[in-house]
Amino acid sequence: MRILWTALLAAAMTAPVALAAPPREEEIVAARIAEVLDRLEEDSDFVTAEQELLDLFESLIAHATDKQAAAFTDTSFALRLVLQLSQVEDSLRSDLLPFLRENPAFAHALVFAVRPEHEKMEEVYALVDRLRRERGDTLEAHANLAAAIAIVHDKPLAIGFNENRAASPDPIALYDYYLAHEKEMLFPLRDVPAEMLVHTVDVTGTIADLEWAIAKYKGHPAVGGLFFDIQYDYEHYRTGQPKRSTQAGWGLANILQYGGVCADQAYFATHVGKAIGVPTAYTIGRNADVGHAWVGFVQSRGRQVSWNFDAGRYDAYLGLKGAVLDPQTRKIVDDSLISLLAEYSMSPPEARYAAAAFTDAAVHLKEIEEAGVEFAPVALMETANSRRGRLLRNADLAGQLDLLETGLRASGGYARAWFAVRDLAEAGALSLEEKKKWSSVLDRLCGQRYPDFALSILKPMVASIEDIEEQNELWNAAFRNFSGRMDLAAEIRMSQGEMWANAGEINKAGQCYMDVIERFANAGPFVREALKKAEELLINSGRAERIVDLYASTWNRIERPEQMAGIFVVQSNWYVVGMAYAGKLEEAGQAQQAAAVRGTIGGG
Question: What is the CATH number of domain 430-538?
């Protein structure tokens, strides 16, 4: 059964935002934008158009209320459009500007998804122009798909998977594939935002592979499980001889027939998912001395859509953050950032665009504050405030936070707004009370459903608190809030231990590290770092004779792995800590006991 993303989206709208503005203001803004863009089509004066739209945007920032979200969105869209096209060759702009205005759904999906700080506009819009010329009559109806392909395949995508290298197909051929199979997609392409669809269309393989996959797996509800459908190539692991799937010709069908290692397993599962319309992410992590790959994929449970990053993650990798290649920016990002896309995707388009617009406004207000220039824009129309010469917002921190909070009320999954708050906290701009307030907002909007992301924003906020007792209080509060996730709770304790160690409070630091060892020995790799930190403290405090006992008690807390391939046993906490324990015994002159420990480990 195809999953109705729009129905799920409607059910998820638990915090609606008032997006309607008074008609008069909307009419004024719409008329001014139309006037600017009409004149731009005639004279191609992008410098003047940018300044006029910027003046309009600043007037809204200063005088408009958060109920005028549509006016903010329209102005932000027009300003983004002009700024992006200003970086494109004249020969393309003359055709693209009127085309994008005539296709507003496609234009909005594209303009709000583009990330100019990471992408070259001439490359993005060269592909947009090709899509316009070759498939122009279909782009408005398939706005999100077309936008996703434009921002992912603006330059060829090629990725190495061990000895094999896979490259993306022609973007038009890929677009045609998804249109041809639109009704067979598990998640309807028209309803999934472009920002999520980038993890569907980031194909590195052939169209033939996609056709094979959809014929075999159409409608498969949990693509992550396909990871284990691929037989592990133990012969390759033991001998290093070429994998049979590589020798046969690397592709989905041969991976299924001949097997492979974790890279092949993850590639297979992610690309079958992409073939049937499921956003997926090839995820990597490193533990001990060997890397591992697993699968992230979108799934539906009841009325909720979420990312699952557990498929193919063996015990040795529990609690280890995964890394994902962002197909749009080609940067490596934490899987927690990808997880938040589920929340963003569940917001309706007007709410997503409003979140982006209010964040644009906050960022611009910060730029004005940093430049130290006067901020006194003229109001669009007379109001009680404008008659008295007052601004609703000033170019200060309060104005920035007001805009960011308004944007996050529109869509709590808009990561860029959270990063703006985090950066303000790291820079020391937020007071302690403001940090406490935003920690509470973060917990309410993200803490339960997206704890990994929430902690990634919270940690630098807490670490920037100068008063160590206040910082400690917030670490303890965070520890309680994240107690349901052992890996995150352990990460918090490690940060707390580092805080005390930097302050010279050795005993308190040691208590934090021992808490990790005693509570979370089986939660992930944190126990290894905690052991190293605790060992350093023992040495620095003249208690080195207790190191052997420390390793012994820790190793005895760790559960022995279940039967699995040797490559994964040697990466487990049990193996790594056990071998370290044996080394400490040898250093202490207890060679017989060290040999016994190694014998136990060797016997598995």
Answer: 1.25.40.10
Q: Which residues contact 204 (CB under 8 A, 6 or more apart)?
A: 157, 158, 159, 166, 167, 168, 271
Is the separation of the CB atoms in 85 and 97 below 8 Å? yes
Taking alpha carbons only, the member of 573, 542, 463, 441 closest to residue 15 is 441
| First-to-final CA distance of the chain | 45
The CATH architecture one would assign to domain 156-346 is Roll (3.10)
Q: Which of 226, 187, 220, 186 is nearest to 311 (CA)?
A: 226
Decide if 123 contacts 328 (C-beta within 8 A). no
**Rounded (to 5) percent helix, strand, coil in the chain:** 65, 5, 30
pLDDT range class, residue 219, cuts 50, 70, 90: very high
Q: How far apart are CA 191 and CA 105, in angstroms?
A: 12
Digit-coded pLDDT (tens) for 259-308: 999 899 999 999 999 999 999 999 998 544 456 889 999 998 877 889 99
pLDDT tens digits along 103-118 = 999 999 999 999 999 9
Report DSSP state, residue 19.
-
The two domains 156-346 and 430-538 share their CATH topology (first three levels equal)? no
Identify the H or E element spanning 292.
strand 290-301
Report DSSP letters for 158-195, one per residue.
EEEETTEEEE---HHHHHHHHHHTGGG-SS-TTTS-HH
> Residue 413: helix, strand or coil by DSSP?
coil
Q: Tell me, what amino acid is at 44?
A: S
CA-based nearest residue to 194, from 135, 136, 123, 114: 114
Question: Residue 193 and residue 60: Cα distance in Å, rounded?
Answer: 27
- How far is the C-alpha of 474 from the C-alpha of 28, rounded, in Å? 47
Only one residue has tokens 């498929």, namely 311
- In 3D space, the residue among 369, 159, 371 whose CA is nearest the CA of residue 266 turns out to be 159
CA distance 568 to 561: 9
> For the whole prediction, is pTM greater than 0.85?
yes
298 membership: H or E segment, kind and range: strand 290-301
d(CA 123, CA 127): 7
Residues 6+ apart with CB under 8 A from 444: none
Distance set, CA 216 to CA 24, 273, 410 (Å): 56, 12, 40
The pLDDT value recorded for residue 21 is 46
Residue 464 pLDDT exceeds 50: yes
CB-CB contact of 376 with 58 (8 Å): no
Which one, of 199, 131, 157, lies nearest residue 345 by Cα?
Answer: 199
Where in the chain are the domains?
Answer: 156-346, 430-538, 543-604
Tell me the C-alpha distance between 228 and 215, whole Å: 20
Rounded Cα gap, residues 505 and 493, in angstroms: 15
**Token pair belonging to 596:** 């016994």
List Cβ neighbours of 603 (8 Å cut-off, separation of 6 or more).
Answer: none
Work out whether strand 280-287 and strand 332-334 pair parallel, antiparallel, or are unpaired.
unpaired
Helix 486-502 and helix 468-481: axis angle, to 10°? Answer: 170
Give how far Cα 343 sits from Cα of 13, 72, 132, 360, 509, Å.
Answer: 10, 22, 31, 20, 37
Question: What's the average model confidence in pLDDT over 307-325?
Answer: 78
